[in-house]
Amino acid sequence: MGKIKVMSIFGTRPEAIKMAPVVKALEKDQSIESIVCVTAQHREMLDQVLKLFDIKPHYDLNIMKAGQTLSEITSRALMGLEQVMKEVEPHMVLVHGDTTTTFVGSLAAFYQQVKVGHVEAGLRSHNIYSPYPEEMNRTLTGKLSHLHFCPTKGNRENLLNEGINDEKIAITGNTVIDALLQVVKKDYKFSNEQLNHIDYENKKVILLTAHRRENLGAPMENIFYAMKDIIQNNKDVEIVFPVHLNPKVRNLAYEILGNIERIHLIEPLDYEPFANLMAKAYLILTDSGGIQEEAPSLGKPVLVLRTETERPEAVKAGTVKMAGVEKDEIFSLTHTLINDEKAYKRMANAINPYGDGKTSERIVENIKSFFVTKK
Questions:
Q1: Has 91 been annotated as catalytic?
Q2: Which of 14, 79, 305, 315 has a C-alpha 20 to 30 A away from that of 56?
Q3: Is 264 marked active-site?
């Protein structure tokens, strides 16, 4: 059949971070023709990662519009991907994770009868509205995929319970570890001087991220008021919060946390400085999914500001704890990790279940084996 034509599709910053090592591994293999198509579901944040990893897309749908709805993203991406697939005629499409681009990419491939490989498959929260719309995007993609690249054994079990054939499943680890290990540097200097002037050695620096749709409103207020209380009760703590661009997040953050000493509200960071900020932080509080996988590789405990997680392996391993979205519980768990050295070390020294930095190589080998078997 000649070279295996593999088209990688992604559209957001988190997808690009996790797909970048896969794209690079595909490019190195002489038996594969690698094609990259981005939807640009996110634009500026996506471009930052493409530049960092030196990836030049062959196709860019550039679908992002201000105030876009899920329906608009879905329809624009589906129409654009249909045309690209007709032109490229790939043997396999690779999608990643749980975004709208992920689901639409797999659906477009199904309509063109193209095989689908799902990177980071099998994660489940078992609540279709949390995370929303990601849980359903991921589940539907699983139904359309021919190869499922699972980070962990638990992800594999989820797929088996849904009737997926075990022969289609490979446990590979998570590509985010591959990406992370490439960008974290011991003596990293930030372009943001405010970050360079923080005393990471003698202060306990909390890195906070909060942006999820389901946390907007009262849950977000609870998170911010808990952080305010932490600062008031712990003189050796500083908080760094790269504030999401969503006006609902920004307005509330500056209302509650603005102008408080030792709380640094900064603009969102590119991936490289953010990864290095994680490495320098003492503790991380987040409602993000990917950070639950990344931070443990750096020995950083994570408190998850959500009521469910599709990454229970980290909780089981002890690298992550669920803090929920109630003010008192968030404060209590954070305060304990700041002041109880034994509790902190139990989390910091726990083994990360998400891989060894060689996930992308395993994915490429599985793709090649799939097509050899199909001959």
A1: no
A2: 79
A3: no
**Helix residue spans in 162-319 (DSSP H):** 175-183, 193-196, 218-233, 247-257, 271-280, 291-297, 312-317
Is 193 annotated in the active site? no
Domain boundaries, the chain: 4-173+357-373, 193-349
With 0.85 as the threshold, say if the pTM is over it: no
Peptide bond into 14 cis (omega under 30): no
pLDDT in tens, 58-94: 999 999 888 899 999 999 999 999 999 999 999 999 9
- Is residue 211 part of the annotated active site? The answer reads yes
Give the integer Cα–Cα distance in Å for 107 and 262: 47
Active site residue 329: no
**pLDDT tens for each residue of 332-346:** 999 999 999 999 999
* Burial of 315: CB neighbours in 10 Å, binned 0-12, 13-18, 19+: middle
pLDDT one-digit tens code per residue, 117-160 = 999 999 999 999 988 999 999 999 999 999 999 999 999 999 99
pLDDT in tens, 149-204: 999 999 999 999 999 999 999 999 999 999 999 999 989 999 999 999 999 999 99
**Cα distance between residue 78 and residue 49, in whole Å:** 23
Quickly list DSSP for 74-87: HHHHHHHHHHHHHH
Q: Are 228 and 257 in contact (CB under 8 A)?
A: yes
Select which of 60, 120, 310, 313 is catalytic: 120
Q: For 341, phi and psi rounded to 5 degrees?
A: -65, -35
Fold entry, domain 4-173+357-373: Rossmann fold (3.40.50)
Cα distance between residue 5 and residue 247, in whole Å: 42
